[in-house]
Amino acid sequence: MKKTPALKIEYGNRVVLNVPQLEFEEGKVYALIGANGSGKTTFGKNCGFSYQPQKPYAFRMTVLKNILLGSKDESDDAISKAKSLLKELKLEAFETARADKLSGGETAKMALARSIMAGQDAIVLDEPTNSMDMDGSILAENLIRRYADEGHVVVLITHSIRQAERISDKILFLKDGCLNDDPSAIKEFLDYYA
């Protein structure tokens, strides 16, 4: 089990996040859903897990070197793993391209590969497929699911209800900065945005 601290975060007099300590089981994907401003990103940045932001950064080097930054290792094994991720995400043609010249969807796939290369036990992915097309999203979802199946915790922040239902083991619903585990409230939210 991976635990987060209890989080109470205020901006001025406004409480933007107030959640208890949470436990996450290894090998599971947790989808964190909620309306804009509900506290999803604030949770992701402060829960103590590795965090991939919504707008990932591409360093001015090759795509392969960007991915290798995740492992901080350039051994033959690391290079082989990075190339395997490039192939899995259909980015192999960009291996030697400058990463800061990629499209938004390509950058998002590269950033996901970099996060996976880091091999963290628990990771928060904030809207990782937001700028990808459908094919890219499916490739990314398959990679995320496999990463969890290898024994990692993945918290997926998403606005895509279908994505949450496709790949998560459990859906967490944030409303006004608080977790709402009332099944009827979750169903109402899912039905509204489906």
**Total number of helical segments?**
7
User: How many strand segments?
Assistant: 10
In whole angstroms, how far apart are the ends?
Answer: 31 Å
Point out poorly predicted stretches: none
- Outline type: globular
Estimated radius of gyration: 17 Å
- Write the element-wise H/E pattern from the N-terminal end onward: EEEEEHEHHHEHEHEEH
Task: Please give the order of strands in the largest beta sheet.
Answer: 6-7-8-5-9-10
Give the oligomer, counting copies of the same chain as homo and different chains as hetero: single chain
Helix content bin: 25-40%
Mean pLDDT: 93
Question: SSE layout and pairings?
Answer:
Elements lengths: L1 E2 L3 E5 L2 E6 L3 E2 L4 E5 L6 H7 L3 E3 L10 H6 L7 H13 L15 H15 L3 E5 L7 H16 L3 E5 L3 H7 L2 E6 L2 E2 L3 H11 L1
Parallel strand pairs: 5-8, 5-9, 6-7, 7-8
Antiparallel strand pairs: 1-4, 2-3, 9-10
Helix pairs in contact: 3-4, 4-5
Description:
The chain is of the alpha/beta class and 194 residues long. The protein has helices at 40-46, 63-68, 76-88, 104-118, 134-149, 161-167, 183-193, and strands at residues 2-3, 7-11, 14-19, 23-24, 29-33, 50-52, 122-126, 153-157, 170-175, 178-179. The strands form 3 sheets. It has a 6-stranded mixed beta sheet, with helices on both faces. A two-stranded antiparallel sheet has the order 1-4. It starts with a strand and ends with a helix.
